[in-house]
Amino acid sequence: MIQTPYYLIDKAGLLRNLEKIAYVRERSGAKALLALKCFATWCVFDFMRDYMDGTTSSSLNEVRLGHERFGKETHAYSVAYADYEIDEVISHADKIIFNSISQLERFAEKSAGIVRGLRLNPQVSSSSFDLADPARPFSRLGEWDPAKVARVMDRISGFMIHNNCENADFSLFDRMLGDIEQKFGELLKRAEWVSLGGGIHFTGGTYPLDLFADRLKAFSQTYGVQVYLEPGEASITNSTTLETTVLDTLFNGKNLAIVDASIEAHMLDLLIYRESAKVKPNDGPHRYMVCGKSCLAGDIFGEFDFPNALKTGDRVSIQDAAGYTMVKKNWFNGVKMPAIAVKELDGTITPIREFTYLDYEQSLS
Ligand SMILES: Cc1ncc(COP(=O)(O)O)c(C=O)c1O
After folding, report:
1. What pTM value is reported for the model?
2. Whose CA is closest to 268, among 306, 312, 318, 316?
3. Which of 96, 208, 275, 337 is a Cys-bridge partner for 355, taking CB atoms 3.0 to 4.6 Å apart?
């Protein structure tokens, strides 16, 4: 038995997503790169590698991890590179995508030996959160003026465009790709490859995979480009739980259950976007507010319905705990860091990593 708290990655859940990714690659000719910003738990990279073409990154650390732990194609992107890191970034990458023309020009000489691209910003997106909207007013994410980009076409061979955010609506994806074609069509014709970024929920239950793959293929044929996708969330959605144990119960007008984990430390993204965690089946006559054990008053996973009254020692499994979660875990309050375990395809559970006091101590000096 592994001591809670721990993240449990279920390979069967991962496989459901990976098989859909492989199907889209096959039918459309697009390549799929895992977005490490979303999920970088490398113990399952051996398992994921056969279904994907490589990784994409947002920093020197990520590009190095992608190169060393995943292999295959390694795209480097960052909002801005520093002079002291550019050589090492290039040593790990087979493509580098600059966020701005000024970064492209600054590192033109150093990057002359590898494939280069530029991020474009079509100024429309599917985001419903200002915080995560790449097309928000005054956005720094990518170049938007086709005339300015046309002047540096001799230095680049492709583009990255990321403007889908948690988009489960194929017709919206289709319309936004149409906007991109309208706006940047002339540039796309001169490119050899185009990455359409992440944020497309195509591994979700009802997503029309064939329409999606055919749209990608048509786009690729119209412009004569190799299409890339950068699925983060879509690669790992519904694959992982955060396993916790109830430490205490209270009644303060509502039934409260305190578990041995923390939303602030272990599922921070939910707190940032003010979203509730998920517990399954969330059905039964006993409603509890499930709370974290940090000192933050609002360290609350959410309110859920349970079949039985909760008591100290009961297990609560928080669903969908892989994306933008394990990459953001932190040592707030010194709360015990969840271990990492993998559920193999035959159901056995392999403990992968435990974190100790030393990890906590070493995270600061
Ligand atoms: C450039 C880029 N690519 C890929 C992704 C992955 O997005 P998602 O995890 O929503 O698929 C992101 C997310 O912010 C991104 O900014």
Report:
1. 0.98
2. 318
3. 337
Tokens matching residue 28? 């459309």
- 137 with 254, same domain: the answer is no
Beta bridge partners, 316, equal 244
Residue 62 in contact with ligand 1 by CB distance below 6 A:
no
Q: Is the pLDDT of residue 56 over 90?
A: yes
In this structure, the residue with its CA closest to atom 9 of ligand 1 is 232
75 lines ligand 1 (CB under 6 A): no
Check the annotation: does 233 bind a ligand: yes
Helix (H, G, I), strand (E, B), or coil: what is residue 85? Answer: coil
* pLDDT per residue as tens digits for the range 273-282: 999 999 999 9
Q: Is the pLDDT of residue 177 over 90?
A: yes
Ligand 1 in reach of 231 Cβ (< 6 A): yes
The pLDDT value given to residue 142: 98
How far away, in angstroms, is 32 Cα from ligand 1 center? 12
Tokens encoding 360:
């906590």
- Number of domains the chain is built from: 2
Ligand-binding annotation for 145, yes or no, is no
259 lines ligand 1 (CB under 6 A): no
State whether 250 and 208 are in the same domain: no
Cβ burial, residue 205 (10 Å; 0-12/13-18/19+): exposed
Question: Quick one: how far is CA 326 from the chain centroid?
Answer: 10
Label residue 1 by pLDDT band (50, 70, 90). Answer: confident
- Average pLDDT of 311-319? 98
Name 220's Cβ contacts closer than 8 Å, sequence gap at least 6.
28, 29, 30, 226, 227
Looking at 196, 220, 235, the residue that finishes a domain is 235
What pLDDT does 128 receive?
Answer: 84
**CATH assignment at residue 181:** 3.20.20.10
Is the CB of 67 within 6 Å of ligand 1?
no
